[in-house]
Amino acid sequence: MAVDNALVRMIIEARIAAELDDGSCCGKYFSAWKALKAWRDQPPGPGEQPNSLDLNVAAAENYMFARAMVCAGRCSRFQMNTLALGYYATKLMRIGMPTSGNPQSEPDAGVAGWGGIGSEEGEADHDRCNAGVNPPYWRPVKEIFGKEGYYHTAVGTPGTRYDGS
Fold first, then answer.
1. How far apart are CA 132 and CA 81, in angstroms?
2. What total of structural domains would you count in the chain?
3. d(CA 9, CA 17)
């Protein structure tokens, strides 16, 4: 199944519209991402396909994650795009890096592309309403995701922005 770009944009717009505006620059994007992630992480009922395999919602979630993180200055657009392409590459190489207990969706260039669109729009948001926050050129991955976990373990310690290692 290929990604339906018009449907992905509708999912994105509907999810943003459904979120309450907390008055912050990037809050609606974080809330929208968390809602999409939660839906994809729900365990399937007996005989049902897991939500995690829906490529249109996967694309919308990738978009929303990238937009929120870049808007907030948690990472640069360059780093977000690099991480998105790296994650896509792990899927192509069949390296399992699921983000929940559900199966990982198949590699899809359209899903990866929506992450790039999200980082681009997140950069515009950042420049519009959060320009005082300057992300480092490269932030350790565990700081972006806010926890130690599979990604940190699977790819090793990327060094830190503090000591340059």
1. 22
2. 1
3. 12
